[in-house]
């Protein structure tokens, strides 16, 4: 395939990189020559020459919505390609303006890849950005079947799934699943602008998940929202009504089961309807938590160990803990494969835990269980043992040994890793990934610098079993 990409931002450069992986010839153009040069330096293709040579198979118009029609008209005037497509996230505006510019609509296939990042520019581009993603195609009545087939082949070469839809329906649906969510994320992130630093110190992954997309390019998103204003306003009005009712219920102290709880239940139902892997129905997975040192190559070794066990990772998420040189990888696998993975990772010396059930059972390296499960999945619980790193060994944390239940670690020697200071008792006031980190890090009242002069305290839950 021979392709021209006009606009070397995140999407345009990612398309070019994906095509280059299939040995396609790609030429690049941008109103900012520096952006085009950077994309070329990244291996996305070569600069488009000024002369009019043989037309390419397809030209991708990767510019903001308001510039699509003018760019398309200019490209067709130069006869750059046999057919053309765009990647704007709204479709009615470019199509209307293309008609006004008297573009050749028989060779134009409006398109929109449902993929992106909160970052922008060619430096943020990735060849795998579109893998498994939906790519909407909105061929017009005038569009030729040959042009549609060529653009569909480009979409598949990028690893995406082409889906045909009507331009008006497309704009209604993206208002719901993309444009309005961006404004909701921005509204929540705006609350943080004047927030005290002490509040932000408590921020966790939930806040990051909700506000991540708010970091998008302001100028681009202003154009997108303006071009799809009416559908977006309709969705926002419905969201605002729900939030206003929830605020009224909380302020008045009314029956929360009829107000807030109902909204939460509707939200859970909505999440369950979001398509899962490969666009299929959402499925339930078992989550296996694995502590990994924050060192080069550790994540690759974990993936290799999982593959050697014959287990496919359906999804992965990494939880970091500020100030600690470890993290927790949460591996989503099929429920029937969770025990197999646990056994394989335990044998390899990985500290692991499986989420789910009535209690959370922590497994120390080597497969030794530090005690019976503690049935407090959402509340405070005591860490029964601590895996301590020692020199040597084949496992990811070296050879390990398990300290007796409820005992604090002794004063570290100079040959041992000095973990950052934590609080005095081995009492973790949260379950989940941070609890797994506490299993490895342990704690000392004096931060490992010496004796504090205070009597060591045992976890009362464990002391009762001694």
List the helices and strands and how they pair.
Blueprint: E1 2-6, H1 10-20, E2 25-29, H2 33-41, E3 46-47, E4 56-61, H3 68-77, E5 81-86, H4 92-100, E6 108-109, E7 111-113, E8 134-137, H5 145-157, E9 161-164, H6 167-190, H7 197-200, H8 205-211, H9 218-227, H10 229-252, H11 260-273, E10 286-293, H12 298-308, E11 315-320, E12 326-333, H13 335-347, E13 352-354, E14 361-363, E15 381-382, E16 427-428, H14 433-441, H15 460-463
Parallel strand pairs: 1-2, 1-4, 2-3, 4-5, 5-6, 8-9
Antiparallel strand pairs: 7-8, 10-12, 10-13, 11-12, 13-14, 15-16
Helix pairs in contact: 3-4, 6-10
Write out key terms for the chains shown:
single chain, 466 residues, alpha/beta, Rossmann fold, 6-phosphogluconate dehydrogenase C-terminal fold, Alpha-Beta Plaits, 3 domains, six-stranded parallel β-sheet, five-stranded antiparallel β-sheet, 16 strands, disordered C terminus
